[in-house]
Amino acid sequence: MTMQVLRTPDERFGDLPGFAYTPRYETVDGLRMAYVDEGPRDGEVVLLLHGEPSWSFLYRTMIPPLVAGGLRVVAPDLVGFGRSDKPADHADYTYQRHVDWTRGLLDRVALRRITLFCQDWGGLIGLRLVAEEPARFARVAASNTFLPTGDEKLPEAFFTWQRTSQEMPVLPIGRIVGFGATKPLPPDVLAAYDAPFPDETFKAGARAFPMLVPARPDDPASAANRAAWAALEAYDRPFVTLFGDQDPITRGADAILQARIPGARGQDHRTLKGGHFIQEDAGPELAERILALVAARG
Predict the structure, then answer these.
(1) Helix (H) or strand (E) segment spanning residue 139
(2) Is 100 noted as a catalytic residue in this protein?
């Protein structure tokens, strides 16, 4: 059966505040994936992976200082988000497909010695990639994310969000991002988060993500995530956590990452002031920490 794919019209992305970057595109598994690629071609690569329900616009205050620091910054839009193609059926989205789609983009752009910054689903995908291809990643900064297997109890705040994401007749993307930040977001920023989604038919990916988090031991992704943890428990390259102090969904996950991943030992872990979408609350500070991590050359 042919996958029905939607593509957001380009005019939806006009006049984005602080985000005048020219998008680049690669085709992965028949789907067009968009990404921002800024900075020197020979600079160390920083990969910025967003989560649910945002897109690379989330990184608009981090890209300039990272580029100014001499780094090459690659910020993809996951399939179903931003300028990337959007399969219209919820069933077309699986955890494994998201991992494979993202890996396909990294292959197409030929990224190596990556410094990964990942938040929310950017971590659920990115940490899987680190575990499965550790030699590809020079270092990792994880923020407000985790790698669940379904064997642990998830916080009630997650299940509240999961139910809400399925029950709301209209999923207000901009308002969701705004609710997850501690600083009020201006109307043009909220509109930019809504821009990829002209109507509800474009939001299948946004609605699917909460249901793809492994919340029980027999989840389809549980075995792969357990295998990923086994690999991460041998990952000894630099691994730093940069979590917000007001995120009810991922609170405490930083301590687990620090305890289980060898590369986290002795690193300059930080708890920053901010909510789940910490990029909105502390973007320049996050960029500063990434620059410090790269400069350490660990």
Answers:
(1) strand 137-143
(2) no
Dihedral angle, C-alpha 153, 159, 162, 163, nearest 10 °: 140
In whole numbers, what is the pLDDT of the chain averaged over residues? 97
117 and 48 Cβ atoms separated by less than 8 Å? yes
Tens of pLDDT along 233-268?
999 999 999 999 999 999 999 999 999 999 999 999
Q: Do residues 225 and 214 lie in contact, with contact meaning Cβ atoms separated by under 8 Å? A: yes
Q: For the segment 138-178, what is each residue's pLDDT rounded down to a tens digit?
A: 999 999 999 999 999 998 989 999 999 999 999 999 999 99
50, 98, 269, 276: the catalytic one is 276
120 has catalytic annotation: yes
Domains of the chain from N-terminus onward: 5-295 (3.40.50.1820)
Q: Which of the following is catalytic: 120, 219, 254, 281?
A: 120
The residue from 247, 254, 269, 281 that is catalytic is 247
Q: What are phi and psi of 269, to 5 degrees?
A: -70, 145
pTM above 0.90, yes or no: yes
Spatial separation of the C-alpha atoms in residues 215 and 226, rounded to whole Å? 13
